[in-house]
């Protein structure tokens, strides 16, 4: 089994796509007016308009209501990303900080309130833990 993607449901597809294009530095693919994918080497972030929810089952997802999932992306330099994104991000949750498990992380919210973590392993143990994973 292979992990394919994470999908965010939103009422404002264009706004969220533009936000993630800026954060991730890639252009979205738009196979349909109500759906976009931001394809990275390690994963795909899919974004669907709330109009797509009935295709999965009425009420199966509610836009801008996530309070449990953190969308995480591994980067090469958290501090450099922080400087790049500082003027663009409206809601910072945590400025760059080294976590007890050895990752340097910064957390912010996207325009729909989803929590996003950009991180890099910085301790010897964390670097070792990520050594066999796709490079971020």
UniProtKB/TrEMBL annotation:
<dbReference type="GO" id="GO:0046872">
    <property type="term" value="F:metal ion binding"/>
</dbReference>
<dbReference type="Pfam" id="PF00903">
    <property type="entry name" value="Glyoxalase"/>
</dbReference>
<keyword id="KW-0479">Metal-binding</keyword>
<dbReference type="GO" id="GO:0046491">
    <property type="term" value="P:L-methylmalonyl-CoA metabolic process"/>
</dbReference>
<dbReference type="InterPro" id="IPR004360">
    <property type="entry name" value="Glyas_Fos-R_dOase_dom"/>
</dbReference>
<protein>
    <submittedName>
        <fullName>Glyoxalase/bleomycin resistance/dioxygenase family protein</fullName>
    </submittedName>
</protein>
<dbReference type="InterPro" id="IPR051785">
    <property type="entry name" value="MMCE/EMCE_epimerase"/>
</dbReference>
<feature type="domain" description="VOC">
    <location>
        <begin position="2"/>
        <end position="121"/>
    </location>
</feature>
<keyword id="KW-0560">Oxidoreductase</keyword>
<dbReference type="InterPro" id="IPR029068">
    <property type="entry name" value="Glyas_Bleomycin-R_OHBP_Dase"/>
</dbReference>
<dbReference type="InterPro" id="IPR037523">
    <property type="entry name" value="VOC_core"/>
</dbReference>
<dbReference type="GO" id="GO:0004493">
    <property type="term" value="F:methylmalonyl-CoA epimerase activity"/>
</dbReference>
<dbReference type="GO" id="GO:0051213">
    <property type="term" value="F:dioxygenase activity"/>
</dbReference>
<keyword id="KW-0223">Dioxygenase</keyword>
